[in-house]
């Protein structure tokens, strides 16, 4: 693994680059991209991402050109010398890839790695009419309670039906007005890479605060065992098992803090801790300390890969 120096408050992007490097499927797609005709390369996020990921995978002793990537993001309004939200920057990078790659087939391949296809049902409580809409997410945003949570309980809550009343009422075409309703989500398909966003920040009119409450998460889990009735009738995937391979960690407070990452190595399956330029071997027990509660370093984003095997090897799980 290659460390990345902190350059103008770049810990957020450094951490995301470590997770993207561990998501080798992204670099594999970018390597197939013919970039000879790309114009304005200093403004092209996917081109600079391709370069930096290739350098991070290289055995060459030369420095990793992540500064070029950082300046490229700055030209695309993800500013240097600014505290950023990791999930927002992650989604921005994926959006830039879609917008700026001239090979739209490959761009869609990268998007499809993360795409969670869902079907939203909105049932009017006055006339019982149902509106259905299909959409997709690139990360799974999970609300957490100010108490003890688990990944499984957060996913279940996300997929539960919610009653919408008062200011949350929705327009019903059948009734011709806003009415109380129930909204539910069904899964149409699960992605190869499941990015989970633990929503630890709460905003009010006065300030934003961070929730350090406990959120436990497993090294492996089976989606079908958590929410058996959350799948659409059109859901056709057989494999729903996921293995954790990266954790984005936030330490500090809402208005100022620091990002680091735990990464599972592709070859030897060991955990490593990446803090900007510093890389050290870690353990699953150290990853578990990011659950929150007792420690201020809390997991903020989780990266899971579908299937129980990584890189053709069975991971040695310690839990």
From TrEMBL:
<dbReference type="GO" id="GO:0005829">
    <property type="term" value="C:cytosol"/>
</dbReference>
<dbReference type="InterPro" id="IPR038765">
    <property type="entry name" value="Papain-like_cys_pep_sf"/>
</dbReference>
<dbReference type="Pfam" id="PF00443">
    <property type="entry name" value="UCH"/>
</dbReference>
<dbReference type="GO" id="GO:0016579">
    <property type="term" value="P:protein deubiquitination"/>
</dbReference>
<dbReference type="InterPro" id="IPR028889">
    <property type="entry name" value="USP"/>
</dbReference>
<feature type="domain" description="USP">
    <location>
        <begin position="2"/>
        <end position="307"/>
    </location>
</feature>
<keyword id="KW-0378">Hydrolase</keyword>
<dbReference type="InterPro" id="IPR018200">
    <property type="entry name" value="USP_CS"/>
</dbReference>
<dbReference type="InterPro" id="IPR050164">
    <property type="entry name" value="Peptidase_C19"/>
</dbReference>
<dbReference type="InterPro" id="IPR001394">
    <property type="entry name" value="Peptidase_C19_UCH"/>
</dbReference>
<protein>
    <submittedName>
        <fullName>Ubiquitin specific peptidase 18</fullName>
    </submittedName>
</protein>
<dbReference type="GO" id="GO:0005634">
    <property type="term" value="C:nucleus"/>
</dbReference>
<dbReference type="GO" id="GO:0004843">
    <property type="term" value="F:cysteine-type deubiquitinase activity"/>
</dbReference>
């Amino acid at each position: 693994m290659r460390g990345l120096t902190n350059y103008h408050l770049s810990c957020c992007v450094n951490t995301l680059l470590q997770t993207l490097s561990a998501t080798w499927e992204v670099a594999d797609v970018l390597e197939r991209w013919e970039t000879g005709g790309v114009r304005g390369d200093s403004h092209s996020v996917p081109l600079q991402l391709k370069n930096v990921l290739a350098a991070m995978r290289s055995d060459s002793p030369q420095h990793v050109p992540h500064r070029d990537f950082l300046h490229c993001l700055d030209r695309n309004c993800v500013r240097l010398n600014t505290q950023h939200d990791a999930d927002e920057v992650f989604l921005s990078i994926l959006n830039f890839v879609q917008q700026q790659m001239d090979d739209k087939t490959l761009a869609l391949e990268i998007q499809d790695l993360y795409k969670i296809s869902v079907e939203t049902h909105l049932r009017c409580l006055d006339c019982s009419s149902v509106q259905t809409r299909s959409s997709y997410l690139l990360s799974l945003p999970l609300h957490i309670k100010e108490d003890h949570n688990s990944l499984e309980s957060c996913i279940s809550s996300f997929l539960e039906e919610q009653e919408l009343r008062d200011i949350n009422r929705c327009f019903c075409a059948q009734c011709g007005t806003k009415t109380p309703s129930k909204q539910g989500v069904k899964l149409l398909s699960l992605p190869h890479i499941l990015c989970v966003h633990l929503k630890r920040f709460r905003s009010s009119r006065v300030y934003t605060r961070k929730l350090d409450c406990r959120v436990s998460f497993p090294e492996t889990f089976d989606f079908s065992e958590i929410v058996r009735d959350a799948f659409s009738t059109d859901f056709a995937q057989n494999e729903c098992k996921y293995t954790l391979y990266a954790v984005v960690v936030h330490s500090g407070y809402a208005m100022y803090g620091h990002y680091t990452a735990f990464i599972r190595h592709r070859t030897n399956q060991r955990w490593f801790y990446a803090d900007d330029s510093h890389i050290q071997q870690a353990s699953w027990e150290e990853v578990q300390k990011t659950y929150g509660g007792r420690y201020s370093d809390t997991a903020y984003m989780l990266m899971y890969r579908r299937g129980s095997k990584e890189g053709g090897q069975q991971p040695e799980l310690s839990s």
